[in-house]
Structure formats: structure tokens, C-alpha cells
């Protein structure tokens, strides 16, 4: 059986389980369940702390896992990203009271607090900066400056609300742009079971990003219409019973669907229908 690590708590947990469910896997009903076997799909899920997942996968005890890119890099584990999943997006940034610093180069000798010491130490080293102190905290890192434990912090920023509430501002370039990712042990080699798991998740990603668009258009305008809806390979064009009309079917990006419908209407397309893609393999 393929052994898969799934986040059991926090920002990654619910969207990861939702995606696995959409990909046809059993998911736990009770958040206290730590192991779940899905015999039909020949997989076993281990619900683990997101921060620990890279360690388990890097050790080779588990074949594959879902975690955050930032958590993977922070761990230093022997695991690598194989697919980005498009949820739990965040940036990882330095922040402090207004004017405290303008970039990483200003942090020489300064005290920094973070939950991601691996990531920050690497970034400082890459920039040739030696901090006065690098303190690891479990959470609520924003308060470290107010309480005098650090001069600046480095933390996950999603909406920026936590920083604003703490009266702090980001400074310098983002250290990292993060996303939920699928990881495997580094140089794990070919595994058809892992490939099948990845294909299923890719199918969900495509089904979320694209919709199917159908419309009728006069044959003499089909070239213009197809330029608006080129599809992934090439759209299907079929004759209609009424002479001079064709039906076109094509995948389009969900976020562009309304604009494309307006543009198609303007060139004479009618009966424009948009439907969700439930699942796919491209
Ligand atoms: N608003 C957010 N807060 C924290 N992590 C976030 C947020 N948005 C996305 N993430 C991502 O979620 C992962 C962190 O998940 P984790 O479960 O460790 O922390 P959490 O969601 O803050 O949960 P908790 O602090 O309750 O343990 C990281 O990959 C991070 O980039
Ligand atoms: O930019 P925002 O949308 O405000 O989100 C980012 C904040 O959310 C997380 O904190 P969390 O609530 O997980 O508390 P923690 O620091 O105790 O982990 C993270 O550590 C930031 O503080
Ligand atoms: Mg947190």
C-alpha cells in the first residue's frame, strides 16, 4: 500500500482532506483518527502534524505527503516538492515596528524571533548576515517584539491582519512564497503507485481551474470563435442540423469564462453553456 502523510491540524488540514476526497480517496470522519486505510485505492493515510510531515517522508518511512513549501524547506529533511496544490498560499517575511529595517542586510547583529529558524538561518547565511540572536518560538511570534524578546520577526503572512494588529510592517523582499505541496523522498525513483496518486491530484487541479464551454456559432465565424476558445489541444467542432451552424466544445480557464462568453456573444455565438468538470485525466 502507498503510505501517505496528511496534515492533521491547522491551515493545511481541511483543504488537503477536501482535495483527497475529490480525488476519490476515503477521508476520516473524526478529526481524532490518526490512521485511515483505504483498501479500495490501496493507500494508507497517516494524519500527522504539518511540521513533522517532511521528516517522516524524508526518512523514507512514508512514501509521499502533503505539507507547506515553507515547512518542507524549514525542516531540512531529505524530501522534495513534486507538485504544488494551489491552496494554503502565504508569503514568509521579515517584519518589525515601522522603520526598524529596510531589508535583510540591516539585520546584522539584530535579534530575530521566528517559528521557522531553519528557513531564516539559511536566508541570512545566503545573504552573508549574522544575527545577534535567532530565537525559535512556537507561535504568536508577533508579540515577541512588544515583549522585548526580539527586534524583528520572520513569519507567515497571509492577509497581513496579524501584523497590522501588532503594529508592525513587513520589510525587504519576501523570503519565500509558499503553497501546499506534495513531497516525496529526494531521488525516490519511479513508483507507479505514487505516479497514479499524483495524476489523480493533477486531475483535481485541472477540474478546479477549468470549465467546459459549449456554444453554437455560424460556420463562417468559427475561426474567430476558436481563437477565443483554443482549448488545451484543439476544440471539438461538430456540424449542427441547421445548415450553416456548428457546435463548439472547449475547455477554458474558469476565471476567464465570463469574459470569453461576452466576447463569443459579440461575434454571434448563441446557446453558450458552461459546465463544471467533475474529474479528468489529461
Ligand atoms: N494564515 C495562515 N497562518 C498560518 N499558516 C498558514 C496561513 N495560511 C497558509 N498557511 C500555511 O500553512 C502551513 C502552516 O500550517 P500549520 O498547521 O503549521 O500552522 P497553522 O495553520 O498556523 O496552525 P496552528 O498555528 O494552529 O498550529 C504553512 O505552510 C503556511 O504557509
Ligand atoms: O496574515 P494573516 O492572515 O494574519 O495570517 C498570518 C498569521 O497566522 C498565523 O498565526 P496563527 O493564527 O496560526 O497563530 P500562531 O502564530 O500561534 O501559529 C501566522 O503565524 C501569522 O501570525
Ligand atoms: Mg500558526
TrEMBL record:
It catalyses: 1-(5-phospho-beta-D-ribosyl)-ATP + diphosphate = 5-phospho-alpha-D-ribose 1-diphosphate + ATP. Catalyzes the condensation of ATP and 5-phosphoribose 1-diphosphate to form N'-(5'-phosphoribosyl)-ATP (PR-ATP). Has a crucial role in the pathway because the rate of histidine biosynthesis seems to be controlled primarily by regulation of HisG enzymatic activity. The lineage of its organism: Bacteria, Bacillati, Actinomycetota, Actinomycetes, Kitasatosporales. This is ATP phosphoribosyltransferase. Feedback inhibited by histidine. It is an enzyme of class 2 (transferase). Belongs to the ATP phosphoribosyltransferase family. Long subfamily. Its cofactor is Mg(2+). InterPro entries: ATP-PRT_HisG_long, ATP_PRibTrfase_cat, ATP_PRibTrfase_HisG, HisG_C, N-reg_PII-like_a/b, N-reg_PII/ATP_PRibTrfase_C. It comes from the Bacteria. Residues 207-278 form the Histidine biosynthesis HisG C-terminal domain.
Amino acid at each position: 500500500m502507498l503510505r501517505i502523510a496528511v496534515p492533521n491540524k491547522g491551515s493545511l488540514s481541511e483543504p488537503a482532506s477536501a482535495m483527497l476526497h475529490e480525488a476519490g480517496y476515503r477521508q476520516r470522519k473524526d478529526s481524532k483518527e490518526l490512521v485511515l486505510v483505504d483498501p479500495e485505492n490501496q493507500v494508507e493515510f497517516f494524519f500527522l502534524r504539518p511540521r513533522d510531515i517532511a521528516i517522516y517522508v524524508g526518512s523514507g518511512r512514508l512514501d509521499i505527503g502533503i505539507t507547506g513549501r515553507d515547512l518542507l524547506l524549514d525542516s531540512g529533511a531529505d524530501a522534495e516538492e513534486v507538485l504544488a496544490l494551489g491552496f494554503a498560499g502565504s508569503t514568509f517575511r521579515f517584519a518589525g515596528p515601522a522603520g526598524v529595517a529596510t531589508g535583510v542586510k540591516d539585520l546584522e547583529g539584530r535579534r530575530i524571533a521566528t517559528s521557522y529558524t531553519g528557513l531564516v538561518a539559511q536566508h541570512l547565511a545566503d545573504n552573508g548576515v549574522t544575527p545577534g540572536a535567532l530565537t525559535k518560538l512556537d507561535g504568536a511570534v508577533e508579540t515577541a517584539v512588544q515583549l522585548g524578546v526580539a527586534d524583528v520577526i520572520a513569519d507567515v503572512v497571509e492577509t497581513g491582519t496579524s501584523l497590522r494588529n501588532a503594529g508592525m510592517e513587513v520589510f525587504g523582499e519576501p523570503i519565500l512564497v509558499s503553497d501546499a505541496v506534495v513531497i516525496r523522498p529526494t531521488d525516490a525513483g519511479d513508483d507507479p503507485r505514487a505516479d497514479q496518486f499524483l495524476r489523480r491530484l493533477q486531475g483535481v487541479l485541472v477540474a478546479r481551474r477549468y470549465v467546459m464551454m459549449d456554444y453554437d456559432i455560424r460556420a463562417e465565424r468559427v475561426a474567430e470563435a476558436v481563437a477565443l476558445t483554443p482549448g488545451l489541444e484543439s476544440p471539438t467542432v461538430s456540424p449542427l442540423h441547421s445548415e450553416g451552424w456548428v457546435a463548439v466544445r472547449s475547455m477554458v480557464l474558469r476565471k476567464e469564462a465570463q469574459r470569453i462568453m461576452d466576447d463569443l456573444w459579440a461575434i454571434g455565438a448563441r446557446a453558450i453553456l458552461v459546465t463544471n468538470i467533475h474529474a479528468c485525466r489529461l
